[in-house]
Amino acid sequence: MSDLHTVTWRKSSYSNGDGGACVEVATGCLAVVPIRDSKIPTGPVVFVSNGGWSAFLDAIKDGPDALS
């Protein structure tokens, strides 16, 4: 995926409004989830597989005990 101009970026609901901890993910990609720092929208993008992203979200929902 090289053209990210057509995707919709969503900021994490846990990101605060004063410039800290701002993570955005893009929707509309078929096989990957693009992730970027919303403070640097033209900066690097990390691509995670859909399965990897789902596992990450599941681990967060399950809490820290699920990671041990």
Describe the 3D structure.
By secondary structure, the protein is an alpha+beta fold. It is 19% helix and 28% strand. The protein contains 1 helix and 4 strands. A 4-stranded antiparallel sheet has the order 1-2-3-4. Strand 3 (32-37) and strand 4 (46-49) form a beta hairpin. The longest helix has 13 residues, at 50-62. The radius of gyration is 13 Å and the shape is globular. The relative contact order is 0.17. The model has no long low-confidence stretch (mean pLDDT 83).
Helix content class = 10-25%
Radius of gyration: 13 Å
In total, how many beta strands?
4
- Helix/strand order: EEEEH
Strand composition percent: 25-35%
Overall mean pLDDT: 83
The secondary structure category is alpha+beta
Can you tell me the residue ranges where pLDDT is under 50 for at least 5 consecutive residues? none
| Tally of DSSP helical segments | 1
- Spatial order of the strands forming the largest sheet: 1-2-3-4
Characterize the main sheet: 4 strands, antiparallel
What form results from the Cα inertia axes? globular
Spatial gap, N to C terminus: 34 Å
Give a quick rundown of the structure.
The protein is of the alpha+beta class and about 70 residues long. The protein is about 20% helix and about 30% strand. It has a four-stranded antiparallel beta sheet with strand order 1-2-3-4.
Question: Which structural traits does this protein have?
Answer:
four-stranded antiparallel beta sheet
Write the layout of secondary structure elements.
Blueprint: E1 8-11, E2 23-27, E3 32-37, E4 46-49, H1 50-62
Antiparallel strand pairs: 1-2, 2-3, 3-4
